[in-house]
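Marked as duplicate of an earlier ticket. Keeping the data here for the record.
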Amino acid sequence: MKPTRGNFAEFAQWLFAERGAESYLGEQVTMAEHMLQAAVFAEREGAAEHLIVAALLHDVGHFTGAFGDDFIERGVDNLHEDAGADVLRPFFPPEITEPIRLHVAAKKYLCAAQPEYYSALSEASRKTLQLQGGAMSEKEMREFEKRPHFEPALRLRKWDDAGKVPGMQIPKIARYLPMITRALLPENKK
């Protein structure tokens, strides 16, 4: 199933059902659990709906690549942040797609800006950080701080990091389908 005008919520439900049980990069949660947990943490923080939707869909790019399941072992960056943002861009406004595009850069930024942040990363996140180019330089940090979606990307990153709790009680994707529908660009609504 491909996302099309008027069916993105159905597509999201299908995607979570069909691909959500896949392992999340060596973490102790599935892809669906991880993405739903990120949305739960955004919601608990009182984030606006568009950021909850961004948290829910932030790793959709892992489903779009052709890198295979062993991309980490092969030392390949799957660029899921760009792939996800690109897939979502025809359906959602930049307030959703750009924090998704920047959530890996936010990890690189936080590793440079807060040494304790790196220490708290999971082993899998540390491995992917190396594939993603490591912590930012001082110059990269200053440039990243000027990006329009800098702050939302940092928030999304922290929800992403938190969303790795084995056995956490989470809602089904159906809980978020109305939010997804409300967040769609007007031309994509039924």
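See parent ticket for discussion. The first helix runs from residue 8 to 19.
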